[in-house]
């Protein structure tokens, strides 16, 4: 149990590349923190710095108030679960899990008891005398967890521990991991590139991009009030729709038509001295088939008509894709996001819009559909800085 | 192959043809294998056969001795020359192997895992040593060792053996170390191991097949060496078996020592055969499977 503090922690490689830039983060005792971001964002480097596997170039790492920068990994009392599990192939499951205790010179009786307790928790009792090579992926993953929990470390560090499992198993392990962490109450730093994992597991999420912290907050907070375009686009699946918009008096001219600017947004915009050309963000679930919206709501919102390009039915809901005319929104952060998500169309040209509709919709591919949305849900971003202008600090 | 493409009615015939084709293939492979084995083993068996022949039947040209005798073996062990040489050989080869492999394990680990200035130079130099014609070094070594008092001593042979065996051992071992996932070492560190503990308890056990392989290679290299053994020794005190064989004489000046030389040759082959048979499984077995997802 421990509080971990990263104070202006930076990492610069000998070749001059800045991998992590001045990260400030306080992980409270027992908290489950997720570091999320695209590959190469510095999240694993940050984790390795906390572990002691990589040197900290600048700044200070404190665990329970003590400076850790110069301590060797073994003196930090932290356990780590690796993406590849890194089980010792020449040892049985029991020996693997006992290894940290043996190194700590714990007596045999205690080792046996602790290993068996951990095996019980992780449902590994009948596999204790097998070797890792004879185990399935999920079992190996649990052995790696077991090796981490046997010695009651101050904190767990997990580097994409579930990414090698198949989708169904990953879902199960996610739940049991969450349960285990609650039960043990151990401070946990968890690295993932999967935003679903981040949303479901963490008490708080740290979004990293290019070595910089973009935003730190609870999953819901990040979802509802992203600090900038990057966070907005990265969190949420399918991701947020971005549209180029222009502020004209009290109205917002969008590719979906002109909509009134909500009062709250207007005050915030004038306070922020915002430019006229902005980028609007609206999540797919804030759209609905106009035919399914009750009348009194329909008047409050805005309805536009579009041709359904592609319709994907997931059973419980449907995703409708619309093609938009004109230029797409231009912003540096969107370009970053595009290079990360691999969508090539962020640069401009015709843009698409995704709407998440109720399964009851009558929408058909190639047919026109009236779509309704509430302008109150529109987030506005500064194209230059990417900052969310509709977010009260 | 043929059966799958043939029409159904012709299938049985095609299957029969297939079986015949298979049999012929197996036969031709067997013949080739047999040829290779015979080519490799006949000289060895010939030596074995010679070692069991009495001195008057040695030149009779029979592959299987007409009259069997253990006299040759009794004779080589009765004189001090061979036993003394055998002790020298075993001692020098084991000590050289031990030192060379211990050094090579550390050097190979450093080459495989660490970045340090001069790494490329080190690899280059060790390759150069491996390529260097040993014959050109014999004279200088002879002079140096005489000056230093190493001539005709165990260290006088152990030192050049280590030098020439190291590159070989470093190369084989660094290949093995490169195969071991780096994360295992990180995991060991996180589990509370010092770098030495991580190396000794995780890396070395995993590299064991490699260590054994290179130990055998180095041992064979030292065991078989004739050039250094003949040039850097002058008496029984450090002469190894390959060199001692050259000094074998018959009971009288006119007696042919072929029988005793053959017996000695058979005796010195035995440790190698035992060594390889003993560790064959370890050499072949890959231990790293299951370490990481793969």
Automatic annotation (TrEMBL), chain A:
Domain ABC transporter: 4-235
GO molecular function: ABC-type transporter activity; ATP binding; ATP hydrolysis activity
One Pfam match: OB_MalK
A single GO BP: carbohydrate transport
GO CC terms in record: ATP-binding cassette (ABC) transporter complex, substrate-binding subunit-containing
Key words, A-Z: ATP-binding, Cell membrane, Membrane, Nucleotide-binding, Translocase, Transport
Stored InterPro entries: AAA+_ATPase (IPR003593), ABC_transporter-like_ATP-bd (IPR003439), ABC_transporter-like_CS (IPR017871), ABC_transpr_MalK-like (IPR015855), ABC_transpr_MalK/UgpC-like (IPR047641), Mo/tungstate-bd_C_term_dom (IPR008995), NA-bd_OB-fold (IPR012340), OB_MalK-like (IPR040582)
Name of protein: sn-glycerol-3-phosphate ABC transporter ATP-binding protein UgpC
Organism: Streptomyces calidiresistens
Upper taxonomic lineage: Bacteria, Bacillati, Actinomycetota, Actinomycetes, Kitasatosporales
